[in-house]
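[step 3/7] fold_predict: job queued, chain A
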Amino acid sequence: MTASQRLLPGQPEVDGEPVFREPWEAHAFAIALRLHEQGLFTWPHWAATLAEQIERAQSAGDPDTGETYYHHWLAALERLVDEQGAASTDEQARTREAWRTAAHRTPHGHPINLTPDDYPV
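[step 4/7] structure written:
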């Protein structure tokens, strides 16, 4: 068993190194790093928030097999963005809905462009 398998059970690996399962996981990782670099939160604050999120999920029955790790990462990131005043939970939900609307009308392989009309009233 590799060190990463012990630390991140169930996380896929290539040549003994952990890799992302899906592109959105890499994006969530990169966003968290960028927001930290911009000073939105400290790394200890991030780590504590992520640990709390994982603990809550485990208490709710998450088997902690690794498949949901980046779901917890994203939930912790969304919470910090709200708590730090960068974007409220409602603003985040509106943007997710706008993204879905824009993605739905965009042909496969083309860039998705958000417009004011994509945002719910």
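[step 5/7] annotate
The chain has five helices and two strands.
The chain has a mean pLDDT of 91.
exit 0
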